[in-house]
Structures are given as structure tokens and as C-alpha cells.
């Protein structure tokens, strides 16, 4: 009887959602936004971001020719003078610089993080060869034949060092991570808001009085959260799976299994994140009596989600292994969005995942208790906003 | 007076129910019983506590003190699922069709899917909602919304019906339908409690009336019993009688004088014939009849408003 009531409520939510035109439209729009996002990101990765090149010692002499030479190959370069080689190497390591150039103009050495831009390499080679040629011409050595000159010049190459072995999958992993972050953010926001709107609808139409004469508040709330959560989970799974299939088929994605793993992690974190936010959204919704008032109480909750999204996006693209990413991806309000993103990049120690899951479960349990209490205390009171403390006392 | 429902503990029994909202005592030791097969009218001024009492019975509100029992046992959720409720503030899902809505509510009350469908269809037909069967509730006229709300209270074949102002907003035809449905439900052994400000309806329909004031029952009993308790009154129209003609007749008291017409109250057990004799002594008597107080008058006297 108890579980059955929850199931009956959940089934109504699922049916109502699937029948609603807004659901079909919303899902389609999500797909479009996702496609647009992937295209935009691809454009950004390959696009015209300035390449920052550090120059040290004698290499400073090539600053001007380097910018000119690179520009002719379509690469925009900003040169920065660094103190010494070690200083420059540190900047390359933390991503401030894309490359560091050292050595005399005729014997240039290039230091990069993992992989080297071929246009940059070509520009530097041209400069070095030109320098060698100038030296040869200046000595006017008649014993050197033209063939020897050509051989000497073609032997002149730029010495390339990388701090780490290049990860060819990194760009794709980052794209997958960002897609997961966007999907989770949109899904949590959409279905969390749906929970709140459903609560407000039942309260504002007073149908809740009829319902609560039959079932307990927790049955109504649990049924609603389960029903909408199932719809969200299914939507996310379908979107993610079709995205992977589509991207693999069109050749955009070459790591389908990694992406599938990421999707599974994403679904797992969606469940935890949804339970976390749904409890808060439901409690917030129960405080108001009319749909027009709901915006004010929902704003703080949606703000946290937006913050998690913005932080997640920024940290994943810039410093996914940094301390900030590590701490935030473990904290409950941010973990459901940040953690799956970092997992997609493959940069999370196992213990961090464990801590994040444990903290999240504890937070879900606590919020379910508090949210249920607020909901029970506030759901039947009409006329204006209910004070949070009053709701907690009654519930 | 029906024999059903009067055995101790059967049906709904509220005893000593109290509920405060802040400093205001909405219910102050309310005692109420509704036996199976009984139609009980719940009467009282605005703010007397009728709605609060009904919400406590349905478990929507928890009482501060007192008990609510059904068939001798405290009401639990399983029992409440067999109660039917028409709340004062009507409310349904605006974007759900009539049929879906009723099936959903029937299922929430514990009916299996097929039984829920059958019951919903049957009440849709019974209350004249066939044409509206697949229409969203928000698109219905107010009168039809009322019918759906009533069907929602009836759809799971409840053992107790609690209806808060069920007749308000209904057209005369709908009033007759509802009255017929309530009588029929009571005949089938359902306990029915409804509140109304339309006292003539209460008088016509109810086996018993409960009058509440300030959260307490001030009067309860059958309509005829309450009227008998109100005492016997005489209306005498004697155009030739001068002022004070009835003074000095033992056991009587003049209540009202309106031109040639005089209303007298008789004390218990006093014979009315000496009054007739006194009236005839003044000349012709055009009217002489015993007046039973209507529920409206009883209500005014008990609740103390009006005059």
C-alpha cells in the first residue's frame, strides 16, 4: 500500500512529462544546443587563439622575424621574454606559455608541454636556416660548393623537447568531458525545476489537500521525485548514447569506449546530483503558494547550479588537475557536475572519487530529511510565503 | 430515525478534538459521531471550526488533543484511504483529463487499475460528465468542475463521505442530483457528514444535525428532536384583541406581536386550549396554529446571531 502509492504518483509524473509537448521540444532543443556546443568547442580548439611563445637569452633576437614568419603561415604569436630557461620551462609546465625558445638564432631549441604546433616548428626552422645561410654567405667561403650549402641548410633543424609525452586523446577527452558537464548541468537544472514547479502546481491549485487526505506527504514527494528523475535519467541516457553513436559514425570521435564509460559515470552522478538538488528544489517550491512567487525562492538554488557549471567549465579547460578542481569536485553541490567531467579526462585519483561519493550520499540523506520536513511543514499552508523556520518547526 | 449507526463505536467517532492555530482555538474539545448509513448535517457560522474538524478527520491536520476513531479503532492511513473528501477549497490537476484524474485518484485510494477505470467511468456517467470525459479539467465550466470534484470524493466507493459545502455553487438540478446521490450512498450504509449554510437543504436531507460554535458542539440531534427541544409556539390571529390580551394565561409568554398576530411560547406540558379560549373571548379568531421552529430559527437561537 505504501510503496504502491509512491509508484502510482511516480507513474503519473512520468506519463504527464512524456505527454507534454514541452518535453519533446525541450529534448530537441537540448540536442541542437549540444551539437552547436560541440561545433563551437571544436572551432575554439583549432581556432585563432594566440600562441604564447617565451624567448630566453639570445633567442630574443628572433622575436620579430618569428611573429612575421608565423603570421605568413596563419599562426598568431605573442612573444614574451623570460628570465632564463628554468623560469620559461616552469611557465610551459603550468600552461602560461605554449612554448619556450632558447639558444642562438642558428641553433634554436624549442620546449613544449607535450606536442608541438607544426606551424611554429616550421617558422622556427625557416628562421634558423636563414641564419645559417646568412653566416655562410658572410664568410664567402669559395671552397664550399652550392650542394654542400644546401645540405648544410637542410641539416639545420630546430631541437624540440617535450615536457611530457604527447596525449593525442586529450582534446577528444576534453570535448567529451565538457559535453558531459553541459548535459548534467542542463538535466539537473531542468528536472530540478520540474520538481519545484510540480510542487507549486499542486499547492497553488489546492489539489494537494485532496492528495494528502489519501497519502502521506513523503509518499507524494518521493513519487514525484522518482517519476521526474526516471524521465531525466532516460533522457540523459538517450541523449548521451545517441551523441556517442553519432560522433563515432561521423568520425568526430575516435574513443567511443572511453566516451561510453564517461556516460555511465555521468548517469551515476546524475542520480546522486538529482536526488541532492531535487530535495532542495522541492523544499523551496513548497514555501510559495503561487507560481509567480516561485522564481524568488528558486533563484538561490539555480545560482548554485550555475556556479557549479561555470566553475566546472573553467577548471576542466584550464587546470583539471589543480587543487581547486580537486577540492570542488569532492564537495557535494559541485561534485555531480565537476567529478564526471574530471573522470572523463582521466585525472582523478580513486580516493577522491570515494570521498566525493561518501560526502554526496551523506548530503543526500541530510537534505532528504530536511527537505522532507520543510515540505511537510509548508505544503498545506496557504497565503503567501512560508518562513523556512516555521516550516521546519511544523514539519 | 434510522436504527443504523447508533451502536457505540461504529462509524466515525471524534472525541475531545482540539486544534489551535497560534492563539486561536479552532477546535475546543469537539465531539462528533457519524454512524454508518447516517446523513449528518454540520452547521455553524463562519469560523466555527467545521472545516478544521473535517481536515482533522481526513488526517490533513493533526489534532493537538483528542481522538478520531473509525469502527472503534484509531484512524490509520489504511482506513483513511476508504474515506471520501470534498475539500472546501476545490482543487484538481488543471491539465489532466477528467477520466485520467478520476482513475488516478481511485488508484491512490488503493483500487486496482481495472477497478479504478470501471469506477471512474461509472461516476462520469452517473454525474452527467460523459461529454467531458477526455477534456482537461481547466477547460470545464465551474459547474462541471464541481461535478468532477464530487466524483473524486466518490470514485473509490468510500465508507465515509466528508463533504465541505458540497452544495455551494451548484445549480438547482445539480443540487437535486447531489441530494439523491447522498441519500443513495447513505442507504448503502455509507456514513455521510456534510457542512452547509443552506439550512433548508440540511433540514430536508439529514437524519441528524450537529451545530458548532467556537470549536464546540452546542447542539446535536435529529431535526425533529431539536425542534421539539425548541418548545412549542402558538400563532394566534385575533383582530379584536387589545394589547395584553394574553397576559395572565398560566405557562405562556408573548414572544412577538405583529399587528393582529401574536406569537406565544408555551412552557413544557402546558395545554394550548386555554389560549384559544382567551383569544375567542376577544372576538373572532382567524388563525390558530402550533408553530414548530425551523432549523434556521433553531440555528439562530443556538448560535446566537440574527436577532
Describe the structure.
The complex is a heterodimer of chains A (395) and B (307). With 395 residues, chain A is α/β, with parallel strands linked by helices. Chain A contains 15 helices and 5 strands. Chain A has 2 domains: 2-43 and 169-394, no CATH class; 48-162, D-Maltodextrin-Binding Protein, domain 2 (3-Layer(aba) Sandwich), CATH 3.40.190. Helix content of chain A is 70%, strand content 6%. In chain A, β3 (99-102) and β4 (109-112) form a beta hairpin. In chain A, α2 (21-46) runs antiparallel to α7 (170-204). The longest helix of chain A has 35 residues, at 170-204. The model of chain A has no long low-confidence stretch (mean pLDDT 85). Chain B is of the alpha/beta class and 307 residues long. Chain B folds into 2 domains: 12-227, Rossmann fold (3-Layer(aba) Sandwich), CATH 3.40.50; 230-303, Alpha-Beta Plaits (2-Layer Sandwich), CATH 3.30.70. Chain B has helices at 50-57, 77-80, 98-108, 113-126, 142-154, 172-187, 199-205, 223-229, 273-280, 295-303, and strands at 12-21, 24-34, 39-44, 65-70, 73-74, 83-86, 160-164, 191-195, 208-213, 216-222, 232-237, 252-258, 261-266, 287-291. Chain B has a 6-stranded mixed beta sheet with strand order 6-7-8-3-9-10, sandwiched between helices. Chain B is elongated. The A-B interface holds A 1-2, 4-5, 8-9, 12, 16, 201-202, 205-216, 380, 382 and B 55, 58-61, 77-78, 80-81, 83, 85, 87, 89-96, 104-105, 107-110, 152.
